[in-house]
Amino acid sequence: MGMGDAVGPRCTRASPQARAALLAWGGAALLALLVRPAWPVAAAWLPACTFHELTGLACPTCGTTRAALALLEGDVLTALWINPLAAAAGAAFLGGGVLALVWAIAGLPVPLRALGTARGWAVALGVAAVANWIYLILAGA
Fold first, then answer.
1. pTM exceeds 0.85, yes or no
2. Can you give 62-116 as a three-state secondary structure string?
């Protein structure tokens, strides 16, 4: 089986490459949490949104930095209010990364690919991105 030995109908033992990816994801999430105090300083150096300055409308990623900072401070509701999609992605990155690290260290079997097709996920992500952008425009982000 290229990805490792099957251990159940929906799980497989992690290949060395999969385990390395889990460790990298977990390490990146852990590092993001450890350097949390530096994020506001780094965010201050980011340029203003050119699209917003030119059009007066929110761009598809408006509020992402503020949502990430709120999320890193543990203020999930504010992060969701500022930019729901960015907050969800950030929470998935941080939470999933911590879980991936524990998973890799414990040597647990890796769940197989989720049900659905790549095209289905691409369509769902596209719809979510458009809905999020409409929300940002209506909210006056």
1. no
2. CCHHHHHHHHHCCCHHHHHHHCHHHHHHHHHHHHHHHHHHHHHHHCCCEECCCCC
